[in-house]
Amino acid sequence: MTTTSANSGRARPRAAGEGGARRRGKGSPALASERREHLVRLAADLFAEKGFQATTVRNIADEAGILSGSLYHHFDSKESIVDEILTGFFDEIMAAYRAEIDAGRDPRETIAGLVRIAFNSLEPHRAAITVMQNDWNYLQGMDRFAYLTKSEDEVEKMWVETIAAGQEQGLFREDLDPHLTYRMIRDTIWVAVRWFKPGGRLDSQSLGEHYIKVMFDGINTH
Asked: Which residues bind DNA (predicted)?
């Protein structure tokens, strides 16, 4: 493709990427979206490392190499950033849980599938899980995070109904309280975010399989 020089009237070849540069200019929506995603990733790492309450807007801006005022061009507060992180986590894991339950496998296989989903979320959603571990009570006090309790209640309902179905079918012990059983499973999985190191001896998938063995078979010899 060619363009015409205003001075000579002759056509000149368009420089490679010239059109793309115009389309992805400084203020383009695509570039703004990339910057926003980059800021979310940086903030997520800081929240996971320092904790949400201990992380300031200035910390995030410094990590991004920008002024604090520039951060407000994308987010009105650090609460908006963590809101995006937590919403993304719950949307993804709840969709995965529903798909596992809708697959219609027996309760034991379904519980194993739910455990795998939870462990596989440790690495991509490390920040969200860490914030939930450390700052759940703090965030619950804000109206904008009312969905956290609603989402957690919905997740608990999925697990409890599956455990209860397993009891009815004789797959799980009848003397166990389904709600308490779920909460013990949930907490032992999520607390792993504190010590699980990506790239270590076990990946999240292997960790999940080991947990399933302990959960269903115990540590006693049979």
From this structure: 56-75
Rounded to the nearest integer, the mean pLDDT of the chain is 86
Listed residue (206, 178, 52) closest to 122, CA to CA? 206
CATH superfamily of 76-217: Tetracycline Repressor, domain 2 (1.10.357.10)
| Pick among 1.10.3720.10, 1.20.140.10, 3.30.750.24, 1.10.10.60: CATH of 29-75 | 1.10.10.60
The residues, ordered by sequence, that sit 6+ positions from 217 with a Cβ below 8 Å of its Cβ are none
Domain boundaries, the chain: 29-75, 76-217
User: What pLDDT, on a 0 to 100 scale, did the predictor assign at position 4?
Assistant: 43
Spacing of C-alpha 102 from chain mean position: 22
